[in-house]
Design goal:
Blueprint: H1 3-29, H2 39-42, H3 51-56, H4 69-81, H5 87-102, H6 105-120, H7 123-134, H8 138-146, H9 151-158, H10 163-168, H11 172-181
Helix pairs in contact: 8-9
Length: 191
C-alpha cells in the first residue's frame, strides 16, 4: 500500500469515528420530533360511526378500518341517506350493500370498470343494451355472467346481441389498448 492510499484510509477511519462520536451526542441533545399519526388518514374508524351508520354498513365491519378515507366518506354518505329512503328503496340499498360486501376486491374492481364503461355509452344505447339484457332468460344471463373473456361466444349461445357484455368482461385498459391497435377494416376491392 502506498503512502497516499494509507492517508485516504486513515482519513476515512477518522471520519467514521468522529461521526459515530458526534451523532449520538447530537441526537441526545436535540428533542425528537413526534411521529405524525396515520390515524387521520383512516378516519372514521368503525368505532367512531354512529349506531345507525353501523347498522347500515354492518356487512363491512371487518374490513372498514383498512379502507381509504375517501372510500369511507362515500359509504358514510350512503349510510346517512338510507334511513330516509322509501321502504322498498331502503331494502334494495341493503341488498346491494350485502352483495357488494360479498364481492372480492377483483370483482369490485371489475364492477367499477364496467360501470365506467357503461357511463361512456350514449344514454339511448345504454338503455337498449339494458333492455336486451333484461329480455334474456335467467339461464342466458348466467351463461353471459360466467363467460369471462369469451362472453361474446356466451352471448351468441344465449341468443342475444350485447355489445357491452364483450367489453364488460375485461378491464378497460385492455379494451383501450386493443381498440387503439385495431387496423381499419379492409375495403372491398372494386372492379
Amino acid at each position: 500500500m502506498n503512502r497516499e492510499s494509507l492517508i485516504v484510509v486513515v482519513l476515512a477511519v477518522l471520519c467514521v469515528a468522529l461521526a459515530t462520536a458526534v451523532l449520538p451526542a447530537r441526537a441526545e441533545s436535540e428533542p425528537v420530533a413526534p411521529r405524525a399519526s396515520l390515524l387521520p388518514l383512516v378516519r372514521p374508524l368503525w368505532s367512531e360511526l354512529t349506531a345507525a351508520q353501523q347498522a347500515v354498513l354492518d356487512p363491512f365491519a371487518q374490513q372498514w378500518n383498512s379502507w381509504s378515507a375517501q372510500e369511507k366518506r362515500i359509504w358514510v354518505s350512503l349510510a346517512d341517506r338510507v334511513p330516509r329512503m322509501a321502504p322498498e328503496a331502503r331494502e334494495r340499498a341493503y341488498q346491494r350493500i350485502r352483495e357488494w360486501a360479498a364481492l372480492t376486491p377483483d370483482q369490485r374492481r371489475l364492477a367499477r370498470q364496467n360501470y365506467r364503461l357503461a357511463k361512456r355509452l350514449p344514454p339511448d344505447e345504454r338503455q337498449a343494451q339494458w333492455e336486451r339484457y333484461r329480455e334474456m332468460t335467467p339461464e342466458q344471463r348466467s351463461v353471459l355472467r360466467s363467460a369471462g373473456w369469451t362472453s361474446n361466444t356466451a352471448a351468441r349461445h344465449a341468443g342475444a346481441r350485447t355489445g357491452l357484455a364483450k367489453e364488460a368482461a375485461q378491464p378497460l385498459s385492455d379494451l383501450a389498448r386493443r381498440s387503439a391497435r385495431r387496423p381499419p377494416p379492409p375495403r372491398p376491392t372494386q372492379f
